[in-house]
Design a protein that fits this description.
heterotrimer; A mainly alpha; B alpha+beta; C mainly alpha; A: mainly alpha; MetI-like fold; 12 helices; globular; B: alpha+beta; OB fold (Dihydrolipoamide Acetyltransferase, E2P); six-stranded mixed β-sheet; four-stranded antiparallel β-sheet; 27% helix; disordered N terminus
C-alpha cells in the first residue's frame, strides 16, 4: 500500500529532470536539427562552442563575474546577518525586509532601473557593474543561509571566547569564521550558481564587454536556436558544478 | 519585606582584606519591564567557594552574566579584587567561566581549547604548552585525550576540559554555571569532589550557580539562596540550613516543617516517642531512612526516622518537638 | 554590542541595496516620468509627463496587465498543486533519503534555467499552457523547499497522536498536517505569485504571440521600440504588482 505512492513519488522527481536531461542529450546531436542524436553521438557542437571566441570569452566572463559577486555578496551578507540576528535596534526590521527585496522585485523591473543607472554612472559595459548587480541579487539567499547558521550555540561560543580574553577580532578570526565556514561556502556557492545563471537582469545590461554565457544564449534561443545552445547550457551547468566543488573544497569541510 | 536583599549579607568568616574577592553593590537588571535581579548586594571573600542557589528564574544566571561581563547591570557596581569592573568588557575582566553546556569550541582539540585563553593573551608558545599540559594533568585527562575534539570526548571529559580552560589563564575568579547539570548522578558526585579539589589546589575564588541544593551543600563553603531576583541569605552551609532567614530559605534548602507560629523544625530533628501524639497519614521509603507524615491536632508534620520500625497509615505516633531544634524564622519572604 | 555596531555591520549590504535596488527604482520612476526620446538618446531628460502612466490604461496595456495577473495566479496554483504533494512525499521519506530527494528537486535549478527552458522548448508545443507550465517548473523547486522546511517543523508524533485518537489518514492530514503547514503554503503561494507576475522566460520562449506579460512588454518597449520611458512605466507597474502580491497575502494573515 505504501510501496506504490513511494515509487510514484520518486518517478515524478526523476521526471522533473527530463527537460534538463533532454537538453544534455541534444547537445550530442551530430546535425543542426534540435533533436536528440538518433544514431551516433557527436561532439561537433562542443567543438563549435570551443572554437567560437564569443562563447569562450563569455565563459571566462561568467566565471569571473560569478566568483567576484559571490565574494562581494557573502562579505556583505555576513555582517548584515549579525546586525539583524544579534542586535536589537530600530532599523532591524527595515534592514531585514530590504535584504529580501532583491528576490521580490521582478528581474525585468530591476534590470530596467539598473540600465539607466549604470549608463549615468559610466559603468555600463563594465564588468564591475554586473558584479555589483549580481552581488546584490545574491544578498537574499546569502543572508538567509548565513542567518540560519548564527545559532544561539554560536553566540554562546563567541561569548565564551570573549570571557577567555579574546577581543572582537580574535573572536571573529578564531571562533566565528572557522565555525561559519560551511555557511560561507554554501552562501558563496549559492550566489555563484545564481550569477552563472542570471539572465533576465543581465540581458538589460549586456554589452559586448559584459556578455556572460546566459546573456549570449537567451537572445539566440529566441531567434535562432542551434544545438550549440544545448552545449552552452551544459557548460553553464558545468560551471555551476565547478563552483560547487571549489567552494566545498576550499571552505566546506565542516569544523566539527 | 524586600529589605533582606539590600542590606548586604556578608559571610560569617571575615574576608582577608575588605577589597579582596567579589563585591556586588545594589546590582539590578531587567529585561524590558521584567525585573530579573533587584538591587542585589553580595560579598564573596577571596579564595572562597560560594554557591548561589535558587529555583530556575530566580535571576542567578543573569547575576553570573553580570559578573562575567556578558550583561552590564542597569544599576549598581561590580568589583573583583578591589577593581571596579562594572563597565569592563568581558575579555578584560580575567574571569574564567564554565558553562552549563561547557561551550567548548567544537573545531579545536581539548589541548587547543585549554590554550585559547593563553594564546589570545599573546603568551609565548613554550609557556602555553607548559601551562596547558599542567592543567590537563590536574583535571586528569589522559594524553591521548588531549588531542581529541570535544565531540570525541565523554560528558565528564568535556566538563574537565571546560574547567581546565577556565583556569588556564590564571583567572581572578572562577564562575561555574550549573556545570554538573548535564552529567548523570554518579559522575555528578565524582565531579563535585573534583571541583572541590581543583578549587583547593588553585585557590581561585569560585562562584557556583545551581538549583541543586545537595550540590550547593556538598561543594561550597558559602551558600547564597536567591529568590525572585534577590539574595535572601548568605552564609556557611550549616548556618543557612539550621537558621534560615525566611520561610523560602527553609523550604528550598532541604525539608522543613513550617509551623503556624513562624517557627520551623527539620524532619530529622523530630524524634519518635514523647509526650505528643499524632496519626500517620503517609509513609515514604527513601532507602536509608523513611519519611513519616502525620497529623497532630490538625497540624501536618513530617519526620525522618530509621527504617527499622514499620509504620502504616492510621497508626498512632508519639513524638516531641525539642525546644533546641525549633528555629524562629526572623523574616518573611519578600514579595516576588 | 555598541550603538553604532549594527550600522557599521550592515553598511556594506546597505550600500549594495541602496546602489543597486533603491537607486535604480528611484531612477526608474524618474525615467518613467520623462518624455520619450526625440532623436538621439533613450529619453528626454528633465521633462515631466504622466503620459506613460496614462498609457498603462489603454486597451493594449490593460489586457497585458490582466493577462499577467491571471497568468501569475495560474502559475502559483500549479506550483502549489505540484509542490505540496512532492513536499509531503519528501517529508515522508526516511531521514537519509530526504537530502537526495531535495537534491533531485533542486537539480533543474542548479543545472540552470537555460538548460531547463531549452529542454522544455523541445518537449512542449508553444502555447499558453506550456508557458505557464514552464514558469511553474522554474518555481516548483522553491515551493518544495519552503514546504519541506515547514512540514519538517511539524512534530511527527502529532499525526501519530491524531491516528491514535481515531482519525483516518485523510482526517489526520486535513485536521493536523494541513493547518500546521498553512504558513508554508501561504509563503510558497506568495512567492509563486510574485515570481509569476515577473514571468518572462515562459511567455517569451514557450508562449505564442498572445502570451504577453508585463515583463515581456518591458523588454520589448526597451529594446525593440527603444521607448525607455514607457518601458520604465511598465516596469514600475510590474514592481508594484509584485510587491502587492507579497503584501496582500501578508495583510490577510495579520488580523
Amino acid at each position: 500500500m505504501t510501496r506504490w505512492p513511494s515509487a510514484l513519488g520518486w518517478l515524478v522527481l526523476l521526471g522533473l529532470l527530463a527537460p534538463v536531461l533532454h537538453t544534455a542529450w541534444v547537445s550530442f546531436s551530430p546535425d543542426s536539427f534540435l533533436t536528440p542524436p538518433t544514431g551516433e553521438w557527436s561532439l561537433r557542437w562542443y567543438r563549435k562552442f570551443a572554437e567560437d571566441s564569443r562563447w569562450s570569452a563569455a565563459v571566462g566572463r561568467s566565471l569571473f563575474v560569478a566568483a567576484m559577486s559571490a565574494g562581494v555578496s557573502v562579505a556583505a551578507a555576513v555582517p548584515a546577518a549579525y546586525a539583524v540576528k544579534r542586535a536589537r535596534w530600530r532599523g532591524r526590521g527595515v534592514l531585514l525586509v530590504s535584504l529580501l527585496l532583491p528576490a521580490a522585485i521582478p528581474p525585468a523591473a530591476l534590470g530596467m532601473g539598473v540600465l539607466p543607472l549604470l549608463h549615468r554612472a559610466g559603468l555600463w559595459g563594465h564588468p564591475l557593474g554586473l558584479i555589483l548587480v549580481h552581488a546584490t541579487l545574491g544578498l537574499p539567499v546569502a543572508f538567509l543561509i548565513v542567518r540560519t547558521h548564527l545559532t544561539d550555540r554560536l553566540a554562546e561560543l563567541e561569548s565564551a571566547a570573549r570571557g577567555l580574553g579574546a577581543n572582537r577580532w580574535q573572536v571573529a578570526w578564531r571562533v566565528s569564521l572557522p565555525l561559519l565556514r560551511p555557511a560561507l561556502a554554501a552562501a558563496g556557492v549559492a550566489v555563484f550558481v545564481l550569477s552563472v545563471n542570471e539572465a533576465f537582469v543581465t540581458l538589460f545590461l549586456a554589452s559586448p564587454n559584459t556578455e556572460t554565457v546566459p546573456a549570449v544564449s537567451w537572445p539566440e534561443l529566441r531567434h535562432s536556436p542551434t544545438p550549440v545552445l544545448a552545449v552552452a547550457s551544459a557548460v553553464t551547468a558545468g560551471l555551476g558544478a565547478i563552483g560547487m566543488v571549489i567552494g566545498i573544497r576550499l571552505f566546506g569541510r565542516p569544523a566539527r | 519585606m524586600p529589605a533582606t536583599g539590600t542590606n548586604s549579607p556578608t559571610a560569617g568568616t571575615a574576608p582577608s582584606s575588605a577589597a579582596d574577592g567579589v563585591r556586588l553593590a545594589g546590582v539590578s537588571f531587567a529585561y524590558g519591564p521584567a525585573a530579573v535581579v533587584r538591587d542585589l548586594s553580595l560579598a564573596v571573600p577571596a579564595d572562597a567557594f560560594c554557591a548561589l542557589l535558587g529555583p530556575s528564574g530566580c535571576g542567578k544566571t543573569t547575576l553570573l552574566k553580570m559578573i562575567a561581563g556578558e550583561l552590564v547591570p542597569q544599576a549598581g557596581r561590580v568589583s573583583v579584587n578591589g577593581r571596579d569592573v562594572t563597565a569592563t568588557p568581558p575579555e578584560a575582566r580575567n574571569i574564567g567561566t564554565v558553562y552549563q553546556s561547557y561551550a567548548l569550541f567544537p573545531h579545536l582539540t581539548a589541548w587547543k581549547n585549554v590554550a585559547f585563553g593563553l594564546e589570545v593573551r599573546g603568551v609565548p608558545k613554550a609557556t602555553v604548552a607548559e601551562r596547558v599540559e599542567a592543567l590537563l594533568h590536574r583535571v586528569r585527562l589522559t594524553r591521548d585525550e588531549w588531542h581529541r575534539r570535544p565531540a570525541q570526548l565523554s560528558g565528564g571529559q568535556q566538563q574537565r576540559v571546560a574547567v581546565a580552560r577556565a583556569l588556564a589563564f590564571g583567572p581572578d575568579l572562577l564562575l561555574l554555571d550549573e556545570p554538573l547539570a548535564n552529567l548523570d548522578r554518579q559522575l555528578r558526585e565524582e565531579m563535585r569532589v573534583e571541583l572541590r579539589r581543583v578549587h583547593a589546589e588553585s585557590g581561585t575564588t569560585t562562584i557556583l550557580v545551581t538549583h541543586d541544593q545537595e550540590e550547593a551543600l556538598a561543594a561550597a563553603d558559602l551558600i547564597g539562596v536567591m529568590y525572585a531576583g534577590r539574595l535572601l541569605q548568605l552564609g556557611p552551609p550549616r548556618e543557612v540550613y539550621d537558621r534560615p532567614r525566611t520561610p523560602f530559605v527553609a523550604r528550598f534548602l532541604g525539608d522543613a516543617n513550617l509551623l503556624p507560629d513562624g517557627t520551623m523544625i527539620r524532619p530529622e530533628a523530630i524524634p519518635v516517642g514523647g509526650p505528643r501524639q499524632g496519626t500517620v497519614t503517609r509513609v515514604t521509603f527513601h532507602g536509608g531512612f523513611q519519611a513519616v507524615e502525620f497529623d497532630a491536632d490538625g497540624q501536618p508534620l513530617k519526620l525522618h526516622t530509621s527504617t527499622q520500625q514499620r509504620w502504616t497509615v492510621g497508626d498512632p505516633i508519639r513524638f516531641v518537638l525539642p525546644e533546641s531544634a525549633v528555629w524562629a524564622i526572623p523574616e518573611a519572604d519578600p514579595t516576588p | 554590542m555598541t550603538r553604532s555596531a549594527p550600522l557599521l555591520l550592515s553598511a556594506p549590504a546597505v550600500a549594495l541595496l541602496g546602489g543597486f535596488v533603491l537607486a535604480p527604482l528611484v531612477l526608474l520612476v524618474r525615467v518613467s516620468l520623462c518624455e520619450p526620446a526625440a532623436g538621439r538618446g533613450f529619453y528626454t531628460p528633465d521633462t515631466f509627463t504622466l503620459q506613460n502612466y496614462a498609457r498603462l490604461f489603454d486597451p493594449h496595456h490593460r489586457s497585458i496587465v490582466a493577462f499577467t495577473v491571471g497568468f501569475a495566479l495560474a502559475v502559483a496554483a500549479v506550483s502549489l498543486l505540484v509542490g505540496y504533494p512532492l513536499a509531503l512525499f519528501i517529508r515522508g521519506r526516511a531521514d537519509r533519503w530526504q537530502p537526495l530527494a531535495v537534491g533531485l528537486v533542486l537539480i533543474p535549478k542548479t543545472a540552470g534555467t537555460l538548460a531547463a527552458v531549452f529542454g522544455l522548448q523541445r518537449l512542449l508545443p508553444r502555447g499558453l499552457v506550456s508557458a505557464a507550465l514552464t514558469e511553474a517548473y522554474l518555481i516548483v523547486p522553491y515551493a518544495v523547499l519552503v514546504l519541506v522546511v515547514q512540514l519538517r517543523a511539524i512534530d511527527p508524533t502529532l499525526t501519530a497522536a491524531a491516528r491514535g485518537l481515531g482519525a483516518s489518514r485523510w482526517q489526520a492530514f486535513r485536521r493536523v498536517t494541513l493547518p500546521l503547514s498553512w504558513p508554508g503554503v501561504i509563503l510558497a503561494g506568495e512567492l509563486g505569485l510574485a515570481w509569476g507576475i515577473g514571468a518572462m522566460a515562459g511567455p517569451l520562449f514557450l508562449g505564442g504571440p498572445a502570451e504577453m506579460t508585463l515583463a515581456v512588454e518591458v523588454q520589448r518597449q526597451a529594446f525593440e521600440y527603444g521607448r525607455w520611458p514607457q518601458a520604465a512605466a511598465d516596469a514600475v507597474a510590474l514592481a508594484v504588482l509584485a510587491l502587492l502580491a507579497l503584501a496582500a497575502a501578508r495583510l490577510r494573515r495579520s488580523p
